[in-house]
Amino acid sequence: MRIPRSILSFNIIILIVFLLFPQTNSFSQESKASSKPSTKNPIIIHSNTLELDQEKKLVVFEGKVQAKTEGMVIDCQKMLVYYLGSPTEKETNAESNRIDRIIALGDVIINRFDGSMARAGKAVFLHNEEKVVLTDNPSVQQGPDYVEGHRIIIFLNESRSIVEGNEKKRVKATIFPRKEKVKK
Known about the structure:
about 180 residues; mainly beta
């Protein structure tokens, strides 16, 4: 039975987008089975300025921001890190110091150590939902293959991604055929 090229192409695109992010949480060293955040490998963030707002439970990094975490480097102009509790609380409650979400803004480039890359004007990493939402002209590239749309949603612990188009920007995929190995 021959698989129609349109179905095969769609499955390849979803695979490409999904390969950008591993099936484990991007900000955690631990496996999918454990929902506890990792404290072994921190997120290291460099920027020109850092502003802490304890009432909003927010840390703002601005100016040539670079965040390094396991498996990826995120470059952007501004990064907002929201915590569930105040990041300066002296209590030992790990839950209150967990990251709720990270918003990267302005020329966002996400480079994975496997060579894949995503670009967007805005990337929202939703920690509890374990997904990333790319907007403002998002694109994902894996080798020569490329996909873009109005919005790209990547579910980090599932084998699926959604690339959405709209009236102004339709989904576009560029897929290069893979050479099949000849059996001897």
